[in-house]
């Protein structure tokens, strides 16, 4: 069974992950799939792979989270029940158990690969930073619903799993977002309002939190129509520039920390 992801490495301690960017479903699973393309696209994080086009190492998943979700623990990584998938029925009752077990094995194998990548980064640089990039829906009722901006920040920064030692870096990142000058109004970035960071962030920080930080960066889907999938290219480009702005500040921040 195919589960496709792209790994690009460079001589950097920084990683960009986009584990929900993909939309592909393995052909062997198509006969058992109930959720249609439009429904799946709405709950995926399209264009987050584009956000991850940073001068970092990159880990971009092309397979849909509806096949296997790397931001869930093993037993919840295949959406077998509606309560695992926003009330949606994803698979019919004929989905073979051997397919499910194979997907669980791929989950194990992929996290073993992530272990290898993070360990190698620590060995080479002594520390790491992960931008764990996502997007989220703020119009749950219909396309014409007004966004409640009090409860849906423009950027929700999930930081709950990080070691307290990374507080200065988290503050630095937040300030670099607020100081941006890429043609956007002031960015409403807040921590742990909608999301606190998922399983990927917890997995990495539980094992390697003394050496690095995971920022789970959730963009509200202002860069697209979350119901139709229509992209707003200028907004997308502005958000990409915003992340590049934050990336530019990282080497100087860590060089200063090392000099302390």
From TrEMBL:
InterPro entries xrefs: N-FG_amidohydro
Keyword set, alphabetical order: Hydrolase
Top-level taxon: Bacteria
EC number, as in UniProt: 3.5.1.68
Uppermost EC category: hydrolase
Pfam families per record: FGase
Molecular function in Gene Ontology: N-formylglutamate deformylase activity
Name under which the protein is recorded: N-formylglutamate amidohydrolase
Organism of origin: Sphingobacterium corticis
């Amino acid at each position: 069974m195919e589960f496709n992801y792209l790994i690009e490495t460079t001589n950097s301690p920084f990683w960009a992950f986009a584990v929900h960017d993909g939309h592909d479903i393995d052909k062997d699973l198509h006969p058992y799939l109930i959720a249609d393309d439009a429904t799946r696209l709405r709950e995926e994080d399209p264009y987050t792979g584009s956000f991850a086009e940073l001068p970092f190492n990159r880990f971009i998943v092309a397979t849909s989270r509806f096949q296997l979700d790397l931001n869930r623990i093993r037993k919840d990584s295949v959406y077998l029940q509606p309560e695992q998938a926003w009330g949606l029925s994803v698979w019919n009752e004929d989905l073979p158990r051997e397919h499910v077990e194979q997907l669980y094995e791929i989950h194990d194998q992929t996290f073993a690969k992530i272990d290898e990548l993070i360990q190698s980064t620590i060995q080479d640089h002594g520390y790491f930073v992960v931008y764990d990039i996502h997007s989220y829906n703020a119009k749950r009722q219909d396309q014409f619903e007004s966004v409640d901006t009090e409860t849906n920040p423009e950027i929700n920064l999930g930081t709950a799993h990080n070691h307290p030692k990374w507080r200065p870096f988290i503050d630095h990142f937040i300030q670099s977002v607020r100081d941006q000058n890429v043609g956007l109004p002031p960015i409403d970035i807040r921590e742990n309002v909608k999301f606190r960071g998922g399983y990927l962030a917890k997995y990495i920080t539980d094992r390697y939190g003394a050496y690095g930080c995971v920022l789970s960066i959730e963009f509200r889907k202002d860069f697209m129509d979350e119901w139709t999938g229509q992209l707003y290219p200028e907004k997308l480009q502005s958000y990409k520039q915003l992340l590049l702005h934050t990336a530019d500040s990282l080497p100087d921040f860590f060089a200063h920390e090392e000099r302390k």
